[in-house]
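Attaching the record inline, Q. Sequence:
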Amino acid sequence: MIDMHRKFKEDVEKKVFDLRHRQTIQFNMSRYDEAVIEGEKQFSNLDLAREKAASIKHKTINRLDKYLIDFDSNFTQRGGKVFWAQNKREAVKEIIRILTKSRSKKVVKSKSMITEEIELNEALLKSNIESIETDLGEYIVQLAEQPPYHIVTPAMHMSKEDIAKLFHEKFDISDESSPEEITLFVRKLLREKFINADAGITGANFLIADIGAVAITGNEGNAMLTFSMPRIHIVVAGIEKIIPSMEDLQLFWPLLASHGTGQSMTVYNSIVTGPRQDKESDGPEEMHVILIDNNRTEILKQEKQRRALSCIKCGACLNACPVYRNIGGHSYGTTYSGPIGAVITPFLKGMKNYKHLSFASTLCGKCTEVCPVNINLHELLLYNRNEAVKKKHITFNEKMVMTGWKNIMKRRWVLDMAGQRSKSLAMNMFFKKSWGPGRALPEVQPKSFKELWKEKNES
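Structure, as predicted:
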């Protein structure tokens, strides 16, 4: 079994000293920062909007069973089909069953993080079903045989030169092609895929309980083509995507747009209530919704951390996080990276193997500050750390260091007895290696704060 903690440290070591990588993501994120400032101006009272959104999601998460049953009932009344998947194995098995039964061999997909979570593309490939990503960023990383780098911007880590080189290698077009030329090339290529596709697979930004509908947003129009042109539409969604009412979209859509890409509203917003009805000329013949748990109920069991299920996957916390900005998305080794990923992954994939993600944080609180649904992410990371210790997912060295530190801090006289030079020696002995070769260990000053305070007040 892969030691995920060791792999994380090795991957981080490579990325933090990769100046080209850092330059690329810092440039891309700076453009995001500028856009968000403008996007948030549409709210006369942004704090109130966040509080209202948080309240709605809190209510929904705490009555998840009710709202999911309402969605199922209302959606199936219009001819849709709902499958409840306990884990990724059940979800993938059902999707392949639907595609096999309908003799579907060509599938188009719109951007969806949960299909990355269940590794759907790999499963379809093994079943000899062609699966093409139609979001430009997602298509780029699919060609590069990489997972998405970011929740919203899958190819954020690649410069336009990197992408031009990739398309030159894959399609023999000029390695000096501009972004516009590459976009037109992909547009022409994907149009043919849409026309010939047997089935389309999308995620869901929101599931609407009161009308039994799926809300899908995007900026390129590929999601709309994915669910409207093929004869079968399969929606893959986590159970936490539910919201009570269609009226809630007037709040959630602008929040998602402004915090995700800095827009007032995403370009394409669709509400799909089921397959094509009698006397309707457009839309799929069949529509299926795969509702996935995949350990989300493990998060739901947590009194504090369940609040993370309110996340609307805007990516704002990733863009704000100083750790993410330096180590990047791939270093996390998970589908969901950044602060939100560090909170939920230990429950989705196991605390023992992923508890280190909750420690990969400065706890500066910037993630909480920017969250559109007021998730207290930096506090939830602390609860995760506490959970890891309670379950004894700590090494012997970690336990000894923390026990020693606690005992010293509880006894002021021990600190006073140890001279400043002794403290410097202790720092070098116990922390130099863990501090890392790329950083200088802080120096202990000649005089302690207590000594300086005493001198000041005696003079």
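Residues 56 and 405 are 43 Å apart (CA to CA). The radius of gyration is 25 Å.

More tomorrow.
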